[in-house]
Queue: 2 jobs
Job 1
Amino acid sequence: MTPQEMIERVLELSTADDNVVIVDEESSANLRFAGNTLTTNGVSRSSQLTVISIVGRGVGVVSRAAVRPEGLDDVVAAADHAAEDARPSEDARPLLEGARSADWDAHAEPTSIGVFGAFAPALGEAFATAEAGGRRLYGFAEHTVTTTFVGTSTGARLRHTQPTGRLELNAKSSDLRRSAWIGVSTRDFSDVDVAALDASLAQRLEWAKNRVELPAGRYETLLPPTAVADLMTYMYWTAGARDALEGRTVFSRPGGGTRVGDVLSESPIRLYSDPAAPGVECSPFVVAHASGRENSVFDNGLPLAATDWISGGRLANLLQTRHSAELTGLPVTPTVGNLIMRGPEGGRSLEEMIASTGRGLLLTCLWYIREVDPQTLLLTGLTRDGVYLVENGEVVGEVNNFRFNESPVDLLHRLTEIGASEQTLPREWSDYFNRAIMPPIRVPDFNMSTVSQAS
Amino acid sequence: MRQIDSDFLALPLRRLADAALQRARDLGAEHADFRLERVRGETLRLSDAALEGSIDADTLGYAVRVVKDGTWGFAGGIELSPEAAVRVAEQAVEVAVVSAAINREPVELAPEAVHSDVTWVSSYEVDPFEVPMRDKAALLAGWSGDLLRDPGVDHVQASLTQVKEQKFYADTAGTSTTQQRVRVHPQLRATRVLDGRFDSMRTLAPPVGRGYEYLTGTGWDFPEELARIPGLLEEKLRAPSVEAGPYDLVIDPSNLWLTIHESVGHATELDRALGYEAAYAGTSFATFDQLGTLVYGSPLMNVTGDRTVEHGLSTIGYDDEGVATREFDIVSGGILVGYQLDRRMALLKGLGASNGCAFAASPGHTPIQRMANVSLRPAPGGPSTEELISGVDRGIYVVGDKSWSIDMQRYNFQFTGERFYRIENGRLAGQLRDVAYQATTTDFWRSMAAVGGPQTYALGGAFNCGKGQPGQVAPVSHGCPSALFRGVRVLNTVQESGS
C-alpha cells in the first residue's frame, strides 16, 4: 500500500468529525570514522503513520511505525477513541480547506549507501593524505531523505521531499593536542570536496603549532557563520509568541505584551526564514504531528512564506500558531525550517575581517550551548576545535579554549561588523536544524567567562 | 513480576532472527546479531490546566549487525517477513563490504557467555499505557489547578512522558533475550511574573523506571511537593542576588546527580577516552593511560556503574550485545579504576568481558557504548544533609537541576539549579537568586570534604542523554547522597550577562 493509498484508507475508516493523516517515509545512510578509519556505518528506513482525529474540540493523535494494511483499522480506532475521550484542545480551529501538491501521486524515492559512491573513495584518499601528513581525521557523513505526505478530511493533499545531508570533518594532530573542525550541509554530497576541506583543516593545525595562553576576560572576537548559526538558532527557538505574551521570555515586554517592534540592534540586521531560499529549501507548508507551544495540529497544511523575524534591526515577528496569533493580535507567522541572517550589502568575507583585525580572537565553533537565564536569554557554552589569536591582520597562533556566557539578543546590540552571509552547518544543533545561511560577525567584547583546559 | 506483553511475543521474533542470522552466516559474516524492538512513547502536555497536546507514538523495526572480514555492517528494516529479514541481512553485509575500503582497524568482540532464551522485565506495578489518557490528563489538570489557585503562580506547564521498550535480541553465538521495561517522567513547572521579572520552579520528582503508581503515591509524594512550590517560588523571586565568589557548597542529590552524569559518567566511557567520539561528543581527560593512577577526587569518592539497580533508567537484564549486566567500580577511594565498556572496547584494551553498556536508541540505530547508572556511594553511617550544612560557615545549599554545560573533554563545567539557599554559620538563611557554579572536574571532586550517609541517598536521572552520530538518546539514572564541596567558584548570572 502506498502512502497516498494509506491516507485515503484512513480517511475512509475514521468516524471522527475531521482528520489529518501524515505519513513520513524516511531513509538514511551514514558513515562514521575516527583516527583515519571507519568506526560505524549503516542504512535504515522507516515509515511512520500519524493519525490525528478530531471530535468536537477533542484531539486524538496516534502514531505508529511500519503499519501494515490490516493494521490500519486499529490505528484509526485508537485515534478516534482518543479524540472522543480527550479534554477540549484550546488551539482547536477549523482545518484548512484543501490544496493539492502537483507531485502528490509521485513515489517516495529513498536514499541508499550509494549516495556515498564518489564521496567514500575520496574520504579514503583523505585518510591516506592525512596519515602521511601526521593528521588523524574524525567525523560523520549522513544523508537522509524524508518524504512527508499530509492528507486532511477537508481535502488537502500535500507532499514534500526533504533531503538532508551533512559532513562533519575534524582533524587532529597525532598527539591529539591540536584540533580543527569544519562542517558542511549538502542535499546530495555531489558538492562536497573532501580534499579541499581536509586541506583547510591542515592549515588550521599549522596555525595551532604556536600556542598562546590567554586568561578569561572580554575579547574582540570574530564569530564564524557556524557559531552565529548556533546562537541565532537558539534565539529563534525561544521566540514563541505565546511564551512572550505570558511574560516569560526575553521577548516579553515588562508590564505586558511582546517586544515586537522593539529595536534589537542598531545595525540593519535581517533575520528571516524562507522555504524557497536556494540551498536551504524546506517544507512550504506546516507539518505538525502534535500540538505544542509553537505548533498546532489544526494548522497542518498552512502555507509558509518568507517571514522576517528581525527586520532593519527591529523585532518583526514571533513564532505563531493561528491560536497564539489570536491571543497576541499579531500575524500568523509559523515556524519555518530554515534560518537566514544578513547584514548590510557589501559585507566582507571572514578572511577580509581577519585581515582588518588589530588584535582579537577567531573562533572555529561553539559547543554544549545551554540556557542559563531565560530573562536575558543568557547562554553558556564552550569554544571548540580552535580558538586563534589574530594580530595585525594575521593569525599568529592558537589560544586555549574558553567557557562563554553570552546572550544572543545582547550580542545583536553590541556587534560591530556583519560579514557576508553563506550557507553553514550549525555545529551544536545540526542534529535538529541543518539549514542556515549566516554571516561572520565581530563582537568587541565577547565574554569568555573562564578558561577550559580541553584541547 | 509482570510479564512481557503477549502482542510483542506474538510477533515473528525467532523466525525473522533465524532467517537473518542464517543469511549472514551464509554470506561469510564472522558475527551477526539481530535485534527487533518496539518502543512505545506517550507524551501529554497541559498549559495552565488546559490540554496543549498529546501524542501516542511507537517505533517498530529490526536491525541486523554483522562483522564481515573485520568490518562492521549495519542495516535496519521494517517489514516483518523472513524474506525481508534476509534482504536486510544482505544489506548489512553489503554495507560491510563497501566500508572495508576505509576500515583500518579489524573489529573483534570480547567473549560473552551464551544466554539462551532468557527473559527480563523491569520492576513496575501499573502499566501506564493501560491507564486512559483522560485519567492522566485529569490528574495533571487537577495538580495544575491547585497551583494556579495560589496568587503566587501565574502559569503552570505540566507534562507526562511514558515509555515502554520491548526488545528481542539473538546472535550467531546462540544468545537470545526478550526484555521489557517501562519508565515515566511527570513534571510540573510553575511560573510567576513579578515587577517586570519572572522566574519558575519545577517539581524535583525525577524520571524513574516505574509505572503509573509513581503518580499515585509510590516513590514520590506529588501533592506534598506541589503544595510547597508557590511559597518557594515567591521566596526565590524576592531573594537577593548572589555575590559572586568562592563558596562551600552542600549539594543535594536532586542537583548532584547531573554533575555526576556530566563529569564522571561521560568522562569514564571508554569509547570517549579512546577517541571514538572525538568529533562529536568529545573525548575525556580520564585517558586510558591513567587507569589505576588518576586522582579523580578526594579519598571519599567511590563511584560505581550498574545496570541492575531497581527502578534505574539504564537498568536492564542484558545489553544490546547480549551481555548480562552487572555492577562495577569506576572510582575507588578517589582513584580511577574502571570504565564503562561494550564488547569491542573491552577486547581492544584487554579488559576481559564487557560490563554490559551497549545500547541502541531504536531499531534503526547501531548499538554504541552508553551510560550505566553511574552513582556516588554514600558514606556508611555518614551525616545527614542538615549535619553537612552545620559544618559550613559561609556557603550555599544547592537543590534541583536546571542548566548544565561541560566541555568536550569533561574538564570545565557550569551548572545552575532550581533553588539556592545561603548557609551562614551552619544554618540556612533564605534563598539566593542568579547562582551558577563553575569548576574543573578534578578540582571539584578533590574538594569533596564530606559525603552524606545512606539516609540522604536518592536516584536522579534523565530520559534524554545524547551521544553518537546519528544522534541517540538513552535513559539513565544516577544515585548519590548529599555532599559537601569546599571553595567552589560561584557566578552571578546577571553580572555574567552584562546586565
Job 2
Amino acid sequence: MSHLDAMPVPVGRIATALHLRVLTAALDPDISGLIRRLPGNVEQHEIKVNVADVAARQRFTVAHEIGHFALHRHLIGSDGITDTILFRSKLSNKQEAEANRLAASILLPWAAVHQYCFERFGVAPSEENMAAIAKAFVVSELTVGFRFGF
Amino acid sequence: MSEFRRRYYPTLCIRRAEMKAMEKLPPSEKAKMLPIVLLAPWLNSIEFKNTFDIIAKSVGDIPIIVDLDRGYRSESDLPSRQYFRSLLGGEGASERWIDLIQAHDNYIPTVQLRGNEDDAVLQQIAAFRRFGRGWVFRVEFDGPSELDRALRFFDPEEPEQQLIVLDFGWHDYTLEQQAACSRIIDRITTISDQARFVVVSSNFPNDFTELDNMAPVPIGSRRLYQSLFSTYGNYQMYYGDWGSTKPRKYDGGGSKPLPRIDFPTKDRWIISRSKEEEWDFFDAAKRVTRLEEWRDRPAIWGTSMIEKTALNLPGAISTGPQAIASRVNIHLFLQNNYAVDRVADIPTEADWVDPIPA
C-alpha cells in the first residue's frame, strides 16, 4: 500500500482504504477509542477516537483500532472493542499487545524511519533522535521508544 | 441567499484560545454560525499568510466576516506587521484590502471606513458588490465611532446584502447601555426597517479578585440582547458577542493569574477558583463537575477537557490558555444553540481529520 511509504504515514487514509469510517467523539475521559461493527451490517466498521486527546495520541488510537480490525476482526461485534487510555479492553493483554505492535509498525515503518535518520543524522534511529522522529512522524516519543526498544 | 440571517455572530481575534476553541468545534456547529474574525498577525509569524493558514485550520472554509483588529499593537518590523499596518490606512490601503478579500472566496468583507476617504470607501463597496458576498459595516463604540459615516454609506435599497455590526466592546450590561443601543437601533430602522444588524458586547471579567469559590457572572451580552428583543425582536436584529473573550486592549498585564476553570452556561459563567484554598486546575475542575449545571453539559471538546482534568488524567488542562480555550469552546457551542432546550442531546460526533500536513 503506497500510504505506508509516505511520511508521516497518513493513517486516516489507510483507514479509508480499509472502508473504516473514523469519527471523533466525546468519549469517557478514560477511553481512548473504540472499534465496532455497525449494527445490521457485518461488513461496515467504524472507529471512534476521543476528541480531547492530542493529535499524536489520536493517530496512535486509529492505528491501534486498525490493528484490531486486521488481527481480531472476528472478535469485533456491534458492541465493539473499547480501549481505555492504557489500551486495555475486553480482549486479552496479548491481543492488545498485538494491536499496539501493529499500530507502531504502521505509524513508524522500519525502512522509512531508518532512511529519515540516516539522511538527517547520518546514524540509525537512536534514543538521542527520538524527539525528532516523533515530530517528523507525528507520533509520541513513547511510541518511538516502543517501536525501536529505547 | 444572503449569509446575513438569524444566527450567532461571535467576534474572534487571531489568538491561540479562540483559534483552538473554534478548531475543536464540530464542523456542523461552525456551519451554523457566522464568525466575525479580526485579522492580525499570528503570534510571531514572519509572513501574514500564516494568519490565513491558522484561520483555515481553525474555522475551515465556511463563510466568515473579516475585519482588521485595530486593537493589535506591535512595534516589530516583521513583514507580517508591515503588511498589517499597510492595511490600516494611507495610500493604497483600500486597494490592498480589496485584493485580500478577493483572494479568499469565503471572506465576507467589512467596509474599512477608518483611515480611508469617501472615494476609497465607495471603491470598496463597488468591488464588494461585484464579489457578490455581501458587505458589512462594523461600528465600534469603544472610542469615537464611525456610525454616522456607516449609515451614510448604507444603501436602504439593498438591505439583504448588508449587515451592520454594533460592537460595544467590553461593557457590562446597564440600563444606560440599553438606552444608548436603542437610540442607535432607532436610527437604523428609520433608514430601513429591513436593515440587518448585530448587537455585540462582552463583559467577561478582567479582575477575578472578588470572584472566588464558584462565583457566577451573568453574561451581559445576552442580557442586553434579551432586553432589546422585546422592542426590536421583530426586526432583523441578531445576537453577537466576543465568544467569552475581550477586545485585545484588555489583554495581559498584572501578575500570573491563579489556576482557574470557567464553566459557561447559556446565561452565565461560573468561575471556579480559590485563592484561600489555593486550588490548582484539578481542584477547580473537580468542583465544576460537581455543579448541578454540569449534568446538562454538551458533549464537546471543552467539557471533555474539564472532565479529564477533574480525573487528573494525562493531557488534562495544565495552563491558563488551555483553560481559556476550553471555556471559549463551550461558550461558542452554547450560544450557537441558545434556543435548544437540551444541549446534551445535540449530536457532536464528526469525521476525524488526520492532523498531518496535507
